């Protein structure tokens, strides 16, 4: 391979690459390019043609051009209008651009002209195989491409010699200019051969894939076209026979819409949608969406209601049979029935049953529906965080459907069912919308007569629906939503209530579930009490029911394996079926002690007692609080200390006592978090007892918050706290005076045997709590 350096006029090509052995014409419009062609004609007609890297570049520099170009001879020049020159050029050899000598008035470059005519190709089997392989690739490409004439292909196939064949195929193959440039760049013949072969094979594969895709698209289009033609033919045949089902569907819809009892707005919407359905017969997708919407509107019970049962005696009987206790709820329902019976209309109340798990909140709604003889539907709101779950999806969305409220009305088949919104406190909110705000319209008696579901698009009257909501706590329910509901607290069951519930409801239910007859197994009252006290720790009866089921399973096995006719469960043999006791109550202390006071606490599973211990020791005036106390209890302890310091002279406490002593307040069961405004007077009493050395009565418990001036503030959860005190064997309980109204509402079953003393100042608390006698100091 030889090379020589020459100075030649140069033309920068845009969007095309000229190869050696290629004869091609192109148009030139740039003044410098026209000047370069004219200069070449003056000299020896030789010109250097190199491709620009970017088509948009108007005045290219050396860095804007590819390094390798083609030296060719100008064969013809034709001047065209608008200062355009058409040039016919024959490509001859490769040239490497060394440098641009000058740019004006035309581009002139120093070019290293490469002459590879002296390359020898071995005429052995390898050479012949390469030649034949290249021809086969070219034939495949030409057949797939379809843009090359048969004469041009035949002319290439007649060429003998691998070098000439490579140059001719590169010159005659319609590849993209960047692909041709890659082949042109290869000054080494063998690399050029590999690059050309790769491009041909690659292009054939691309065209195969393209052909396969086009074939699939054609098949799909043909299939849809065929289905359309067949559908039209079938439609025509049915019309001829008078059996056009689509038209009959539209007629059926119109007939059903006419018979539907619904507001005028709904009827107009239906008529409009049925007309749309008739006009969308040629579009199966659209007609399917409209059909579903029309069917949904027709299935809704717009003006279809169920007559209420106004029989108060029947309602009372049903509620008493299904539930023991829950007197407040039963009374409220009977009041609603009485008002409904007198007014013949009456707005449905929105009751919110709040209480611990397992206290019968959910099942009360079923009993309500049964008492009213109304349909019952339940919607679980636990974890719902998408507003569309309540309001529905708009029809524009794929798979749109009505919201849960509208669906529940449709399922009930009446516009005035009993609807239970279960676990309303567990609704969550995220980027998909505020679900609580969506519920505001549902549960507002002033708004819900025109509730708008996004899917239905017409107002839905919810004013006659009897809504019952349940919650474990009111803390997570927003105030505006809570304001729309009538809150009824369902408190913990007493042991006596649990006994009645177990005997009347739980045991019969579990016997039936486990295939046992009443004569095969019996439970004593003391056994049930022991189960409730020592094997469960809950406000409701869910765990108690599980334990009864546990006994039933073991009893069923025992009856089958030992052939016993009956089994009696008593307080003495219950451990045989349930194992050792799981819970024990911290009973009243045996004797009065200094610095130990029994407090009362409310928990999510009922009431409990807390023993508060205080020690005083020599130190520097530090106060230590242990037992995993929350912020509120820590503040209560600090308030108690401040109160004690303010009245220290009354209790003959030395002026420098608090500077020379440390006080340690501890509440045992350190692993259990404790917080809440109800232990203030308890901690203050324990601290005064420890400081003065006076003993506190062991049979006494107390609950209440204290202020800096010693006033006793009211607390909540009194029923559960008094139950805990009674279970622990406490005789006297100190209660804030403002809570005495709550005490009056409690049944005698709870208060019997308890001396409940109202207190409104710490002086009264200490007078009742501190045992008579001298100080131990």
TrEMBL record:
Q: What is its EC number?
A: 3.4.21.53
Q: Which UniProt keywords apply?
A: ATP-binding, Cytoplasm, Hydrolase, Nucleotide-binding, Protease, Serine protease, Stress response
Q: Which InterPro entries match?
A: AAA+_ATPase (IPR003593), ATPase_AAA_core (IPR003959), Lon_bac (IPR027543), Lon_bac/euk-typ (IPR004815), Lon_lid (IPR054594), Lon_proteolytic (IPR008269), Lon_Prtase (IPR027065), Lon_prtase_N (IPR003111)
Q: Could you tell me which residue ranges the Lon proteolytic domain spans? A: 591-772
Q: Which PROSITE patterns match?
A: LON_N, LON_PROTEOLYTIC, LON_SER
User: Recorded GO terms, molecular function?
Assistant: serine-type endopeptidase activity
Cellular compartments annotated:
Cytoplasm
What the entry lists under HAMAP family is as follows: lon_bact (MF_01973)
UniProt protein name: Lon protease
- Protein source organism: Faecalicatena faecalis
């Amino acid at each position: 391979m030889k090379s020589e350096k020459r100075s030649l006029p140069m033309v920068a090509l845009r969007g095309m690459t000229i190869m050696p052995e290629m004869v091609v014409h192109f148009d030139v419009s740039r003044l410098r390019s026209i000047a370069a062609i004219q200069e070449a004609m003056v000299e020896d007609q030789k010109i250097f043609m190199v491709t620009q890297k970017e088509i948009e570049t108007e005045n290219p520099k050396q860095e804007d051009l590819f390094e390798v170009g083609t030296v060719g001879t100008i064969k013809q020049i034709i001047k065209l209008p608008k200062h355009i020159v058409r040039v016919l050029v024959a490509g001859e050899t490769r040239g490497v651009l060394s440098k641009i000598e000058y740019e004006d008035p035309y581009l002139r470059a120093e070019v290293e002209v490469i002459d590879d005519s002296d390359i020898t190709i071995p005429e052995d089997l390898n050479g012949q195989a390469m030649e034949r392989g290249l021809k086969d690739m070219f034939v495949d490409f030409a057949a797939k491409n379809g843009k090359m004439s048969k004469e041009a292909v035949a002319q290439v196939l007649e060429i003998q010699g691998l070098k000439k064949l490579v140059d001719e195929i590169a010159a005659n193959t319609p590849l993209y200019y960047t692909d041709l440039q890659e082949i042109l760049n290869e000054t080494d013949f063998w690399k050029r051969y590999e690059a050309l072969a790769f491009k041909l094979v690659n292009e054939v594969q691309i065209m195969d894939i393209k052909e396969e895709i086009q074939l699939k698209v054609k098949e799909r289009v043909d299939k849809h076209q065929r289905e359309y033609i067949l559908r039209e033919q079938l439609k025509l045949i049915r019309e001829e026979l008078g059996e056009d089902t689509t038209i009959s569907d539209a007629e059926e819809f119109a007939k059903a819409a006419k018979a539907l009892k619904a507001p005028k707005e709904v009827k107009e919407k239906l008529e409009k949608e049925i007309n749309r359905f008739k006009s969308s017969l040629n579009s199966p997708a659209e007609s399917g969406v409209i059909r579903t919407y029309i069917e949904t509107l027709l299935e809704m019970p717009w003006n279809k209601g169920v007559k209420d049962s106004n029989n108060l005696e029947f309602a009372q009987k049903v509620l008493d049979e299904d539930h023991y206790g829950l007197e407040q709820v039963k009374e409220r329902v009977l009041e609603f029935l009485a008002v409904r019976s007198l007014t013949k209309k009456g707005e449905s109340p929105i009751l919110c049953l709040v209480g611990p798990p397992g206290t019968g909140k959910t099942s009360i709604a079923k009993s309500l529906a049964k008492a009213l003889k109304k349909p019952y539907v339940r919607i679980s709101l636990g974890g719902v965080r998408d507003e569309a779950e309540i309001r529905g999806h708009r029809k524009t969305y794929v798979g749109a459907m009505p919201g849960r409220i509208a669906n529940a009305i449709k399922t009930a088949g009446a516009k005035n069912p009993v609807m239970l919104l279960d676990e309303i406190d567990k609704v969550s909110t995220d980027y998909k919308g505020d679900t609580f705000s969506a519920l505001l319209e549902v549960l507002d008696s002033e708004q819900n007569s025109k509730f708008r579901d996004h899917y239905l698009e017409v107002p839905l009257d919810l004013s006659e629906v009897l809504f019952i909501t349940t919650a474990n706590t009111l803390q997570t329910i927003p105030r505006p939503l809570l304001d729309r509901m009538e809150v009824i607290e369902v408190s913990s069951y007493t042991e006596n209530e649990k006994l009645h519930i177990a005997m009347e409801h739980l045991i019969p239910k579990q016997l039936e579930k486990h295939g046992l007859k009443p004569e095969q197994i019996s439970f004593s009252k003391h056994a049930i009490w022991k189960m409730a006290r020592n094997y469960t720790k809950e406000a409701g009866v869910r765990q108690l029911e599980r334990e009864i089921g546990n006994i039933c399973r073991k009893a069923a096995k025992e009856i089958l394996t030992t052939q016993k006719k009956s089994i009696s469960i008593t307080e003495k043999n219950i451990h045989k079926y349930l194992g050792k006791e799981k819970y024990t109550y911290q009973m009243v202390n045996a004797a009065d002690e200094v610095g130990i006071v029994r407090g009362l606490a409310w928990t999510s599973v009922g009431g409990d007692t807390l023993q508060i211990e205080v020690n005083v020791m020599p130190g520097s005036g530090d106060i230590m609080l242990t037992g995993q106390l929350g912020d509120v209890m820590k503040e209560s302890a600090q308030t108690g200390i401040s109160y004690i310091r303010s009245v220290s002279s009354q209790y003959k406490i030395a002026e420098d006592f608090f500077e020379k002593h440390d006080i340690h307040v501890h509440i045992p069961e350190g692993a259990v978090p404790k917080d809440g405004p109800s232990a203030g007077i308890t901690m203050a009493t324990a601290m005064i007892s420890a400081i003065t050395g006076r003993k506190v009565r062991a049979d006494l418990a107390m609950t209440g918050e204290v202020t800096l001036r010693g006033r006793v503030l009211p607390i909540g959860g009194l029923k559960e706290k008094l139950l805990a005190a009674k279970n622990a064997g406490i005789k006297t309980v100190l209660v804030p005076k403002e809570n005495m109204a709550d005490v009056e509402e409690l049944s005698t079953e709870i208060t019997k045997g308890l001396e409940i003393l109202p207190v409104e100042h710490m002086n009264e608390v200490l007078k009742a709590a501190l045992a008579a006698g001298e100080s131990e100091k």
